[in-house]
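W.,

You were right to be curious about this one. When I first looked at the sequence I had no strong expectations either way, so I just let the prediction run and decided to look at it fresh. Below is the sequence, 236 residues in total, followed by the output.
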Amino acid sequence: MFQETADEMWKSGDTNLITGDATVMDMWDFRGWTQIPQNHRLQEPEVLTPDLLNYIHKTPPKFLIQLREPVERLYSDYVFLDYGKTPNEFHQHVREAVLMMNRCLMENSTRVCYFSPDLYHRLPVRIHLGCYSVFLKEWFKVFPRSAFHVTTMDEFSSDMALTLERVMEFLGLEKLPDTQMETILKSRRRNVTKNKRGQILPETRKLLEDFYRKCSEETAELLGDDKFLWTAKTQY
């Protein structure tokens, strides 16, 4: 992915290329922290992915993050990864996951529970990934807020062209030609969750909204925007 940029840097020592990596897991997947030498024998990590990126970059990279309403994100993730198929299965697994997370948080810090490889593999549904504030805090400790452009899936779905224009502006690039923008807007989605059988049960949604409430409030505060509370009035 970075070969062309690396070749140009090797030849001339500099490059005008803007190269991106779209690995979604980089934002939240800190499970390998115990393998980093500086974290040896620690109960919580001192060095994480943001620290490693900061070490190798002379100037801060620019980060594009798109967040989805946590409850819908979780159900889509659940079906897409084949954890289960039906709303009833989902409800049972959500109940188990909430209990497991709350039990862990009663005995450990937030960072221990959310970055635990063991707990990750035992959870019946990846409930912790929707607590965006936990992971954003780690990135904001290392990089300035101005290095991040955060949007929502609702914004992207409702006005893709405007969302992309703002991304180009954030990257310091000129507006795309109309023909190129039109090609992008007509592109087919690569990942579509199939085989959803029914909608999230009301009792499941209530359980998850209660679980995510504090995290969403922290996310809205971190980003200075109430749309990340995911209420009907603030969603796009």
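Here's what jumped out at me. Residues 102 and 195 are 30 Å apart (CA to CA). And, maybe more interesting for your project: DSSP finds eleven helices and two strands in the chain.

Coffee later to discuss?

I.
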